[in-house]
Amino acid sequence: MAVRLAEVARHAGVSEATASRVLSGRGYVSADSRDRVRAAALALDYVPHEAARALSRARTATVALLVHNAQYPMGTEGTFPSRVVHGVTRRLRAAGHDMLYIVVDDESVARLDRLPAVGRGRSDGVLVLGPAFPPGSIRVLAATGRPVVLIDNRLDDPQLPAVMADNGPAMVALTTHLLEVHGYQRIACLAGPPTWPSTAERVAGYAAALARRGLEPQIVHAPSTTASDGTNATADLLAQPGPQPDAIVAVNDALAIGALYQVRSQAIRPAIVGFDDIAWARLTDPPLTTVAVDAELMGTRAANMLLDRVATEGGEPSAVARIPAVPRIRESCGCPRAKEEFV
User: Fold this and answer.
1) Contact 84, 278 (CB under 8 A)
2) Which residues lie closer than 8 Å to 308 by C-beta, 6 or more apart?
3) I need a surface site. Which of 29, 112, 117, 313 has the fewest CB within 10 A?
């Protein structure tokens, strides 16, 4: 049986009128009440009747989510983007919105405003996932007048709110573990393009941890952050003259998994760690030490920000929302095997 609005209101401890204002995006509601109504809608799996709402508001009740096919080849459950998408869709469903999932290639990324889901008014707002979209393309998209929220990317523009992991401190903690617990001194870094904000923040955290001990960073930038990029970048790193690194820090798990593949036949393997804690991280040989990021929460937070901006027709300037990131210590850094829970 479908959940009624009155049930959502009772669950949230508010009036039915207040619940209606929150879920329709019309009228003022306090932040506390808004959060309680949204939580209740999620808990009860409430889906409003959207047809009448869309007609009355002249909106589509649809949000577009853009990803770049080179950075996020989809189809594998448990990857960073699939977890983000799960958070987005769960939140949008609770608000009675659909989502258009759009994979963008190199040819169309230059003119995001001409995508049918954007240029023909088929969506109320747009979520942009990942740092592979050029800043100029994002600004062109924002110029269409539809609200835009960035995920795992940011621009220095208060009109373009963003959701990011707490990258710098987490990478400081991960690199410090390698330095203090294991005593590694030659720690290299596999990174994506330096213009990508997530890469830049993680590299900065890695370099800061080394600088505190007077050590020089050694960074190899790959054109993207896939597993094949990690394999190629590790080959380049190990071909450089001088002593081999005794540890490698990768800015995401895909690069780290590629590095593990590249060093699998070496007599002396460097410790390898990643970032994101994707589902495959516990299944590598050895299990991957990494940083856990609640990607589903990133998606939920971004969807909330976009819905707020749709409801207020742009809203107030927004800062970057940060999602906590916590090291997950496993064997690939040199620590002993720990019991893992598989859920």
Assistant:
1) no
2) 25, 315
3) 313
Where does 1-48 sit in CATH, by number? 1.10.260.40
Closest CA to 36 of 11, 56, 62: 11
**Could you give the C-alpha distances from 267 to 118, 221, 264, in angstroms and in order?**
53, 25, 9
Q: Which CATH number is associated with domain 167-293+327-333?
A: 3.40.50.2300
With respect to CATH, is domain 57-165+295-322 assigned 3.40.50.2300?
A: yes
Q: CA 194, CA 29: separation in Å to the nearest integer? A: 42
pLDDT in tens, 252-265: 999 999 999 999 98
Size of the chain in residues: 343
73 burial (CB, 10 Å; 0-12 / 13-18 / 19+) is middle
pLDDT score recorded for residue 150: 95
Cβ distance 111 to 89 under 8 Å?
no
| 207-241 per-position pLDDT tens digit | 999 999 999 999 999 999 999 999 999 999 999 88
Enclosing H/E stretch for 55: helix 50-57
